[in-house]
Structure formats: C-alpha cells, structure tokens
C-alpha cells in the first residue's frame, strides 16, 4: 500500500534551508539572525522535522525561550499550526504537543527546574543572549548526552555578552558551526523599510538588529557601555591574588532564588575582582565551604540588610548563622536600588576582572531596565531575570566597600622606644 504523504504547509526561505542543512550535519549550531528573518518558524519546523525522522523510542524535543511567557507568545501558535496536519494533540497546561509518538515541549529559561531530569533528542535555545549561559552547560548539555541530541543556539545580538562568545566559538569551529544572516545579505526585508528603520532607530540599534553587530551596548543596560570600555582597555586579565590586600565579598542572598558572591581585593585605587560563585537551591553551608576551599574566609563579607531578619524555623538570622561559621559580616547601607546602581557605576571604572568572574561579568553586561513592549519605552527599574543576582551582589559590594585608610598600615608603630615602619 502506498504511503500517504502529509505536508505541514511549511515553505522554508533560503536562509531557513541553510539552517536545516547545517543542523542535519552537525550537533551544535549557532545562528545569528537579523530581525524578521523567520528564525523562530525555522526553529519549530526543525524540531518537527527532527522528531519525524528520529528512530529512537519516545523522541523528545524542546524549544526554550528566555521566559515561559515568551515561549508561549512567540512559538506556541507556530507549533500548533505546523503539527496540526500531523494529528498533533496539544496540552496547553504543559505547553507541549504530542504527535505520532513524538513530543515537542516549550520551556522558559526563567524556570530551569522544569528542565531538570529530562532527556532530549534535540533542542533550540532562542534569543540565547537573554538566557543564563549556565543553562546550557548545567542542564541542557547533560540532557542531550545519553541520546546524542543536538542543540541550536540562535538569536539577534545583544551587545558583547556570552552570545558573542558563543558566536566566536562557532566561527572557530570549536565543536560548533556558525551561520550569520544580515538583512543586507538575505534581502528578505524590503529595502525601503530598512531605510526607514535606519532613520528611526539610529546607527547602533540598526546595526545590531538588522546587520547582526555585537558592538552596540545591550539596550537598556546599566553597565554594558562601561564594561565595553574596560574590555577595550584590557581590564580582563589573569590576576594574582595579593595576600596582603584588603579582601571583600559582596553577596546577594536568595531563599528560593540564586545566591551570588563576588570576591574583590583593594590594591591602591584598583578594585580587583578575583573570584565569583553563583548557585541555586543549596544552603548557606555550600557557600561557606566554597569560601573555605578558596581561602576567602578572612575577607570582610558584605551582605544586604535583610540578612538580619530571623528565620522562624531556627530563630536565628542568616547573619548570625554566618557569624557562627566564622565569617566577619558587614551589613550594607540600605539604599534605594537606583542609588546602589549609581554606586556600582562609580566603582566599575576602577575595576579589573579575572577570567574566574566571567559568569558574573556576563550578568553585569545583561543587567537592564524593564522594557514596556506596548509603549516601546524603558521603565526606570531593573528587570528581574538571571542577571539580577550577580548584579545585586555587585551593587552591595559597591555600597559596602570600606576604602578608608588603614591606620595600622599608614602609621608607624612605637615598641620599646623603637619605631617599626
């Protein structure tokens, strides 16, 4: 009996065909695409095509956007449309479609726990520049391992952040392959529309959105332009720890959220960021052990004002718990968020960054204001996402850093009529 051929109605454009061909031959692909190129449509249809051709039992594929709401808003209708001819059964509550024994699910990177423990035959990370880079290394990559699944990381540039690093990695063929699509090359957007967009958006924004430039700062970012200048000045270098320097840590303590810690050393007027840690779902003992293992217990530890609040279960505050563990705690002054951001902006031009703090630095670059899509304006308050924890910890560090002269080091000491300098 002749097999019945079913079409989903998808007719890929030339750039979309290039994506499909590259994914067919490679496990890890980076796609840098201009606005309105159709990358999300290509992503959903790539997952459908892969699912149909997967010969493993119970194939599982995933589309992951920066947030769950974005995933639903951007990709859900496409997933329904293109799986309908395949007899797809939609589960709206779990944002997934099952068809022919296959499953494609939509996720948000803002809820990484929803991805833990699953296996994947393939996935797409959309707008990767707005996704915590640890999501791939800690969750997605292990989920792909036992089935040798593939991953496509795609997006439009968001400044010189981890997406640029991944793009450079793809360009160097370090296990990844790269595709870049500029509007001037694809000719998919009307020329008159591009001219109009250029006039309204300005050079930097136009180059970012339509010509895939990573040179523009992250739009709405509080710190990315400062950090870009520091990178150009060579402030990202290997830093030797100074055993005589004053050492501080800045913390952002999360309860159900992540906790972040920066380690800084003051050497003359320089502020050297030498270490960083962030984790999720672990207790205070984890961070105390990390400090011990890395020899940072002797530092002055700067924590937010809510560290003094007593917990109902223990009757102790987290400040008391950390002090019992041997840490010298300083509570940062309670300033408004905007005043704290200004303190961080004043501190940054004096900073040097060791490669160990790269994850924290990526967060600082991506820390930005809330954007109102309906009104096309930025609100004067920070967006709470994966970049918030490290950025808040840096803010507390900036507010609590004690740079007053050290009397014991600045004055000679008299012992038995002898001056010791």
Describe the structure.
- The protein is an alpha/beta fold.
- It has 2 domains: 14-211, 3-Layer(aba) Sandwich (Rossmann fold), CATH 3.40.50; 228-400, Nucleotidyltransferase, domain 5 (2-Layer Sandwich).
- Helices cover 36% and strands 23% of the residues.
- The protein has helices at residues 14-25, 39-52, 68-83, 134-145, 162-171, 183-186, 191-201, 203-211, 224-232, 284-293, 318-324, 337-347, 358-366, 388-400, 407-410, and strands at 28-33, 60-65, 89-91, 96-99, 102-108, 122-126, 150-155, 177-181, 246-252, 259-267, 270-279, 300-303, 328-331, 351-353, 369-372, 377-382, 413-415, 418-420.
- The strands form 4 sheets. An 8-stranded mixed sheet has the order 3-4-5-2-6-7-1-8, sandwiched between helices. A 6-stranded mixed sheet has the order 13-12-9-10-11-14.
- Strand 9 (246-252) and strand 10 form a beta hairpin.
- It is globular, with a radius of gyration of 25 Å.
- 41% of the residues are buried.
- Residues 407-421 have low confidence and may be disordered.
Short description:
Helix content is 36%, strand content 23%. The protein contains 15 helices and 18 strands. Strand 12, helix 11 (318-324) and strand 13 (328-331) form a beta-alpha-beta unit.
Query: Structural class, please?
Result: alpha/beta
Beta-strand content estimate: 15-25%
**Low-confidence spans: pLDDT under 50, at least 5 residues?**
407-421
The CATH superfamily label of the largest domain reads: P-loop containing nucleotide triphosphate hydrolases
Give the averaged pLDDT, no decimals.
Answer: 90
């Amino acid at each position: 009996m002749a097999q019945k051929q079913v079409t989903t109605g998808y007719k890929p454009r030339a750039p979309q065909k290039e994506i499909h061909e590259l994914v067919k031959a490679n496990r890890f692909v980076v796609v840098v695409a201009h606005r309105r190129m159709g990358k999300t449509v290509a992503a959903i249809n790539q997952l459908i095509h892969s699912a149909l051709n997967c010969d493993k039992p119970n194939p599982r594929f995933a589309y992951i956007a920066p947030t769950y709401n974005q995933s639903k808003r951007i990709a859900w209708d496409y997933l329904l449309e293109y799986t309908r001819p395949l007899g797809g059964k939609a589960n709206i509550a779990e944002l997934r479609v099952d068809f022919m024994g296959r499953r494609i699910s939509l996720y948000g990177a803002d809820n990484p726990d929803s991805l833990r423990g699953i296996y994947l035959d393939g996935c797409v990370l959309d707008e990767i520049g707005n996704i915590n880079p640890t999501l791939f290394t800690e969750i997605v990559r292990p989920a792909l391992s036992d089935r040798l699944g593939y991953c496509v990381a795609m997006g439009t540039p968001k400044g010189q952040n981890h997406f640029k690093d991944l793009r450079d990695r793809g360009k160097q063929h370090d296990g990844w392959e790269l595709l870049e699509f500029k509007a001037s090359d694809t000719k998919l957007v009307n020329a008159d529309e591009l001219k109009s967009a250029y006039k309204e958006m300005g050079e930097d924004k136009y180059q970012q959105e339509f010509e895939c430039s990573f040179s523009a700062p992250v739009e709405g970012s509080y710190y990315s332009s400062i950090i870009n200048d520091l990178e150009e000045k060579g402030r990202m270098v290997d830093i030797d720890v100074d055993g005589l320097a004053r050492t501080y840590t800045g913390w952002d303590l999360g309860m159900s959220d992540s906790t972040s810690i920066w380690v800084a050393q003051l050497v003359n007027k320089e502020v050297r960021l030498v270490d960083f840690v962030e984790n999720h779902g672990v207790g205070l003992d984890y961070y105390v052990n990390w400090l011990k293992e890395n020899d940072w217990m002797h530092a002055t530890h700067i924590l937010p004002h809510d560290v003094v609040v007593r917990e109902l279960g223990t009757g102790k505050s987290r400040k008391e718990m950390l002090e019992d563990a041997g840490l010298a705690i300083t509570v940062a002054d309670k300033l408004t968020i905007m005043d704290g951001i200004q303190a961080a902006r004043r501190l940054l031009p004096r900073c040097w960054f060791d490669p160990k703090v790269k994850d924290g630095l990526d967060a600082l670059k991506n820390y930005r204001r809330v954007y109102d899509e309906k009104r096309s304006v930025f609100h004067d308050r920070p967006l709470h996402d994966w970049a918030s924890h490290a950025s808040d910890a840096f803010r507390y560090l900036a507010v609590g850093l004690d740079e007053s002269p050290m009397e014991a080091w600045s004055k000679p000491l008299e012992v038995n009529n002898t001056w010791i300098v």
